[in-house]
Amino acid sequence: MFAIERREKIQQILHENGTVKTMELCAALDASPATIRNDLNLMAKQGVLQKIHGGASSLPKKLQPQLQTVEATALLRPEAFSFQMREMQHAEEKGAIAEAALEYIKDNQCILLDASSTALTLAKKLTRFSKLLVVTNGVYTMLALKDTPNIDTIIIGGIVRKNSGFIEGTIGADILRHFHVDIAFVSANGFSEKEGLTDFNIYEVELKRRMLENCNHIIAMIDSSKFARVSSSSFLATEKIDVLLTDDKIASELLERYKSEGINVQVCTGK
């Protein structure tokens, strides 16, 4: 079992039970006490759980709102936050967006997923399809799909950054020439009408540009917290977005403005 899978299981167990002993996790996950203690130490540092004597517990409710501050702090130092922390942010909204994205996918397509936490949410829902080819630069997306029947997964080679879970740089980008991508599903750190989709890592941005060059359709999956936010580098102009999926927390004034400017916005309720 990969570390990311093991830590996801730990989160699931804590969500269901509230507390868990280290030795219980060893038995459930077939891991050594040293491995589990390392996992718990890391997850405690990330603010995902609270260590207790002999095990771990879910965060107290009074501390849980602190998770919401990750987004604001990430604007200043986004590279400092692990993928797991980003995955926890706006999980309900990402789930609604991923459900809506499924409606655009058909069997026998080649789809591209970037390394975003929203794309990972979508990847975990692809089990309903009987045949897909998925191209991704997401390490966690690849891990989520690797044992999924009827889905072939191709990961783009390159450099993996600590805590990020994405491939960056264009070392392996030439592999993209061998695939005809029907639909690309991408997210971003920010979106504005003028700058389009933007991100903070210039090396990942460079790869994203290459990834989107020869796609028939591009669907942006942007939760409402990212609107009117501009990061350091643009990787896709607004006019190249075929559909922009967002959640129902988008401000009505902003929604009307986007639509009046010809942006094809679909609001996802998750119902």
Polypeptide structure, described:
The chain is of the alpha/beta class and 271 residues long. The protein has two domains: 3-59, Arc Repressor Mutant, subunit A (Orthogonal Bundle); 86-268, Rossmann fold (3-Layer(aba) Sandwich), CATH 3.40.50.1360. Helices cover 34% and strands 23% of the residues. The chain contains ten helices and 15 strands. A seven-stranded parallel sheet has the order 6-5-4-9-12-14-15, with helices on both faces. Strands 1-3-2 form a three-stranded antiparallel sheet. A hairpin with a 6-residue loop joins β7 (159-160) and β8 (167-168). The longest helix is centred in the N-terminal third of the chain and has 15 residues, at 3-17. The protein is globular, with a radius of gyration of 19 Å. The chain starts with a helix and ends with a strand. 36% of the residues are buried.
Features:
3-stranded antiparallel beta sheet, globular, 271 residues, Arc Repressor Mutant, subunit A, 7-stranded parallel beta sheet, alpha/beta, 34% helix
